[in-house]
Amino acid sequence: MAKGLDVGTMNIISGKQDDSDTVFVQQRNSFVEIEHSDMAEQMLSRSDVLHIRKDDNVYVVGDDALNFANIFKQETRRPMQRGILSSDEKSAIPMIKLIIEQVAGEPDYPGERIHFSTPADPIDSDLSTLYHQKTCESFLSDMGYEPEPINEGMAVIYSELADNNFTGLGVSFGAGMTNICLAYYAVPVMTFSIARGGDWIDEQAARATGKPVDKVTSIKEDGFELDFKTDVGGVEGALAIYYENLLDYVIENIAREVDDEDVEEGLDVPVVVTGGTASPDGFEKLFEDHLDDAHLPFSVSGVKRADEPLYSVARGSLVAARSEEEREKPQKSQPVKSSNSNGNPSSNGNSSKGKSKSAKSSKDKNSKKSKSSKKQSQ
């Protein structure tokens, strides 16, 4: 077997094959600090809340951090910022290490292959992703895995464009970054990222409305739709404005980065969007409308949102890991649905249903199973 791991600014998600299903384990990549007391620690432990004690403080980590932040009127803290480890957060390393351990779990055997997502260097910032990549690689190696980084945009191609011979434009709208990959028969023609994503939308909307960022994030994740029927003066209206601004910015950079010499004349490609930021209903239609107005060196045959945009990068990372594992150990590996005769993942790679788990207890590394994730409407 093998695993895929999406190391995202907002969520860390692992995926592995379980017979015909792909099972995902998810944890929010955030934490909140509360004052330590014996009673508080006992209650957290009994409630299976993921936490860690350090000196005189207790850090609630993962999915429960946002709930505690809202209760205690605090802002959550993030191990990652703008798609990579935060240099401003002194607790970034121990926190993200704990979350990765919970989400990935122990390897099924020593040296189990795991592909983990890593962003491309952003073209609109001097940020480097190398330290982030090597640190995550070290965590996974210490756990007993054989880790391999995979470009986040390419993971989208593996996950969603098998039926189009892995040819098309994959765009992962994450919290910290937006990653873009144009591939032709599974060969990346162009990969890059921009240092804006869902966090940028939340921050701008919070600044415009005077609301806390975590409150804006909660509103965005609770049934927000890009239907432009909400009042401009509210949080939903501000979110819609900055969503539209982000899409224009992404398209502007795609047009700038793709050279006419990079693509075949008359190339007509599908576009697939993924990531938690792409989850609101109406997102793909809005993106398609803006692409239609853009001047690109290739034609767009259509825009679709992944059935499960939150899990797409983890799924694509898993497809790549299983294909690599089969090539290396064909006599030991199980039949892999995601490999064709030329060694690239095949169209069967994303045929399994997605099931999600939520890593909760700091005592239970296998996590408790939650309800299966519902497919997003297209």
Automatic annotation (TrEMBL):
Biased segments, Basic residues type: 368-378
Pfam families referenced in this protein's UniProt entry, alphabetically: Volactin (PF25216)
Signal sequence coordinates: none
Annotated protein name in UniProt: Actin-like protein N-terminal domain-containing protein
Phylogenetic classification of the source organism: Archaea, Methanobacteriati, Methanobacteriota, Stenosarchaea group, Halobacteria
Compositionally biased spans, kind Basic and acidic residues: 322-331
Origin species: Halomarina rubra
InterPro entries hit by this protein: ATPase_NBD, Volactin
Record-annotated membrane-spanning stretches: none
Biased composition (Low complexity): 337-353
Superkingdom field: Archaea
Region (Disordered): 320-378
